[in-house]
Automatic annotation (TrEMBL):
SUPFAM superfamilies: TRAP-like. The lineage of its organism: Bacteria, Bacillati, Bacillota, Bacilli, Bacillales. Pfam families: AIM24. InterPro entries: AIM24 (IPR002838), AIM24_sf (IPR036983), Trp_RNA-bd_attenuator-like_dom (IPR016031). This is Transcriptional regulator.
Length: 255
């Protein structure tokens, strides 16, 4: 590389929270760009509530990544950006696939050698190593991934999950081997991961953020009868059956 980025990694206000593959999560200890007493007061309480700006840095070395549309802040180096769409048919498939899963129609590909910085966020950035597996991801969490992963759209097993549970019919899925970055509503330290072995998990609410595609997902009454469901006070619950894993955000229901 023939470039140097100064005052980023060598900045005393910046810490590296996590690094996996070509992805690095940066966190800013304080927001030094406040310009008013009101902003300064808000920043003080935010910093004491674990609310720090985070930024995803991606380093390419003759490699390629896929990214959420509009997420790029700046790039340095010799890279080319493409849509990954080769014809009109691909554009139509991408549009409907993105609309169905709520992830955006076109996800740009960046290929070459250099460094990419994404827009800062107050949400939490997760780095997930998908190791010859397939995971289903809740709408809106996708940030970026290595193109060794296959990104697709997974349909729900039946209509009940959409009609009864207020969920969409489709979700984004990632399969194969590679790293994916997600923008989550909670820190990874707060996530509860349930491992099922031919068993079932019932969740009252939409706070399952990610799950193995091997699981069968439905929405059902919490009791065997309508009266039983009403008596329990739960009504409808999301049910995951089979063998696999479910990532839950128990302290911040995902919406």
């Amino acid at each position: 590389m023939t470039f140097v980025i100064n005052n980023l990694l060598d900045n005393s206000n910046t810490v590296i929270k996590e690094k996996l593959g070509s992805f690095t999560v940066l966190e800013y200890i304080k927001d030094l760009s406040t310009t008013s007493v009101t902003d300064a007061t808000a920043q003080y309480y935010m910093s004491h509530s674990n609310m720090h700006r985070k930024q995803l840095m991606i380093e390419l070395n003759n490699s390629e990544i896929m990214m959420k549309a509009g997420a790029m802040q700046y790039t340095v180096g010799r890279m080319e950006m493409t849509t990954g769409i080769k014809d009109a048919g691909g554009a139509v498939r991408s549009f409907f696939g993105g609309a169905a899963s709520g992830t955006g129609a076109i996800k740009p590909l960046y290929k070459g050698t250099g460094t990419i910085l994404l827009e800062p966020t107050y949400k939490y950035i997760w780095l997930i190593d998908v190791d010859n597996d397939e995971v289903v991801i809740e709408d809106g969490l996708f940030l970026a991934c290595e193109t060794s992963l296959r990104i697709g759209v997974t349909a729900r097993s039946n209509l009940s999950s959409a009609v009864l549970g207020g969920e969409g019919l489709f979700n984004m899925s990632a399969s194969g081997k590679g790293v994916i970055a997600l923008e989550a509503p909670i820190p990874s330290e707060e996530a509860v991961v349930v491992e099922l072995q031919n068993d079932e998990l019932k969740v009252d609410g939409n706070f399952a953020m990610m799950w193995s595609n091997s699981l069968n997902f439905t929405v059902e009454r919490s009791g065997k009868t309508r009266l039983g469901s009403a008596a329990s006070g739960e009504g409808l619950v999301n049910v995951y059956r089979g063998t696999g894993m479910v990532w839950l955000a128990p302290l911040a229901a995902y919406s």
